[in-house]
């Protein structure tokens, strides 16, 4: 890393969730459109814990704290094909970070 580069630290932490098991929470206010982070993954051949389906035949097992993003119909963040997670609305400090996983998921 050069002097001008700074290490990116995702503004998140993991804690028990009222939605399901563990959840990912904002450690500070996050602006709409802000990059929350980029998740680490490996290709997955079948469904399982922490597997994110990008397309019908393209799945990845999320390997870091981003695996704790729970589903919510009124999500505040989104996963993108380049493995980034962005805020789709303002997220307040302490608020759980959620993603809309589709109609097959219930709240």
List the helices and strands and how they pair.
Blueprint lengths: L11 E5 L5 E5 L8 E4 L2 E4 L6 E5 L2 E5 L7 E2 L5 E3 L4 E4 L8 E4 L8
Parallel strand pairs: 7-10
Antiparallel strand pairs: 1-2, 2-10, 3-9, 4-6, 5-6, 8-9
Structural write-up:
The structure is a single chain. This protein has a single domain (12-99), classed as Beta-clip-like. Helices cover 0% and strands 38% of the residues. It is built from no helices and ten strands. The protein has strands spanning 12-16, 22-26, 35-38, 41-44, 51-55, 58-62, 70-71, 77-79, 84-87, 96-99. The strands form three sheets. Strands 1-2-10-7 form a four-stranded mixed β-sheet, with no helix packed on it. It is globular and about 35 Å long. 21% of the residues are buried.
